[in-house]
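Predicting holo structure, adenosine-5'-diphosphate bound.
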Amino acid sequence: MCGGARSGEGGRVIEVRELTKRYGRTVAVDRLSFVVRPGAVTGFLGPNGAGKSTTMRVLLGLDAASSGEALVNGRRYASLRRPMLEVGALLDAGAVHAGRKAFDHLGWLARGNGIGTRRVAEVLERVGLAGVARKRVGGFSLGMRQRLGIAAALLGDPGVLVFDEPVNGLDPDGVRWIRELMRALAAEGRTVLISSHLMSEMELTADRLVVIGRGRLIADTSVQELADRFGRGVRVRSPRPDELTRVLVTAGGTVESANGTAGGGRVAGSPESGGLVVSGLEAKAIGEHAAAHGIPLYEVTPRNASLEEAYMELTARGAEFGAAS
Ligand code: ADP
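Done. Tokens:
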């Protein structure tokens, strides 16, 4: 993991360090470590039950870690002096008193946190609820409640934002709106962490991905890196895979066996099938390098795997993949 996450980023950092959370015999989160930095949307991705909500709850002081820690701006949530000014969160949009009006709900939150009422009007405007500010929350659609929850998260103008499955149950307009807002918040230099079990959603929203499975880190990578690694490789088969691997690595390619056992930049062992996945070199270049060394090729197929497929492959494999520097 990178050191010095606290310095030089205006303190807008989430750090999860060796976090473990057990519920009885269930290990919900298992020695999980990652850092989320400002200026990007980071998708926190994993199948249902992977431990995303648990991690977020510990981060927000709603649950205690069994061991390890989850920090906002270098501190545990409980020791933040004015938490709403440092971290905003949306965990459960349903958690608002139905009889309360939108403005009053936010006004109550603002007062309790030393935030002026002017800010309430500002955030209602930002989430598109200014027109229904005096309406009771009980009559709000799921999308409107979601917006209200986001308004509450933004109230203290925090540098760190955490949203648990924010697009669940929203219609396409709502999904698009949330996506654009998340991107705008990151562009303002905030640290934005959004959980989802859907790669299709994260692909369109996130710049970086922290993928977990069974409470453990599977990948900490940029979306681009993942796409390059899984989606845009070229599948190559040869009766002389080891020799071909050496040639292609020398030529600047990254080679792994088609069953996915080697890491980036490392030379794969000899897979039985002779199947390799090459990235960083196009099919044409691969053919030319092979020909120059007299190595026969049985297959050269550019892959167009989607990120969804990459995600399935990663979570099925369950092992850690290239923890990013
Ligand atoms: P995700 O958010 O990725 O869907 P969760 O963090 O909700 O995953 O759950 C991770 C694991 O921890 C699951 O096996 C879940 O059943 C278990 N779990 C979560 N919260 C509790 C709890 N309060 N009591 C017991 N088990 C829990």
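Residues 13 and 37 are 5 Å apart (CA to CA).
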